[in-house]
């Protein structure tokens, strides 16, 4: 009897999984058929012998408070996942700028491009220049945190305040994990599916608890894997993985003079290359409950808000707590 119950349970799980994954629709590399929550604008960039288009959203408040905040997305995301944050900040009077980095979202996916955090920071500055914005608050999540750090170090006069939400790069992954070539990373990216992405998000983002509101952020990246041009996206993903591994920012935290807030979900264990690290080192990687405190000590005068039992995505998983911490710092 127990045997049959297990078979029935497994069949139900497969059925539920099939329903979830059947919602995923193919998406082209520029997300042409996906509607962002706000109007999308583009700037033209001449970069590294490429003619590129960089997408961004510019959310203007009805009653401006005179402040601008720029929201920088993570590696497995694009600007769309800032919708709720942008709406609430706009309601508080902030002008909100939300770029899609080159290689992500609706922006160009170049084949020949040397990705670096300095280049991404330069591209981001070009949007502010286009909009005649002299100063901004910068909020970076995950990989966006590494972009935000580099942006702040390169252009400190443009940054009023810096907010880092579960940024990656709080440790040097090269000291743990072996190197993989870009070609190897590309082959790995080509193997991604809706199921592999969901399993990864469950493990690092949501503590194996899936909710309906998480589905849109899975659909966006999973939809790419179903499109015939997915290799174009996978190649850019491999290039940016190489950038993250080879260009640590953690050694330069001591150089940040900008008022800084760290919002850290302490359950997060995200670490690039963890699967390539020796078994005995893997448990030591991505220990955000320790990395947050360590980073606060290194950034002079910074504040730390720890969100207990929260994973890699506080602004999705526990939005009210996230926004309370954010607004308390930027208002």
From TrEMBL:
User: Is Cell inner membrane included in the keywords of this UniProt record?
Assistant: no
Instruction: Establish whether keyword Hydrolase is in the entry.
Output: yes
Q: Name one GO cellular component term.
A: membrane
Coiled-coil region list: none
Gene Ontology molecular-function annotations: monoacylglycerol lipase activity
Where in the numbering of this chain does the AB hydrolase-1 domain appear? 68-218
Q: Which residues form the signal peptide?
A: 1-22
Key words, A-Z:
Hydrolase, Signal
Q: Which GO terms describe its biological process?
A: acylglycerol catabolic process
PANTHER family named in the record: HYDROLASE, PUTATIVE (AFU_ORTHOLOGUE AFUA_2G14860)-RELATED, MONOACYLGLYCEROL LIPASE
Designated name of the protein: Alpha/beta hydrolase
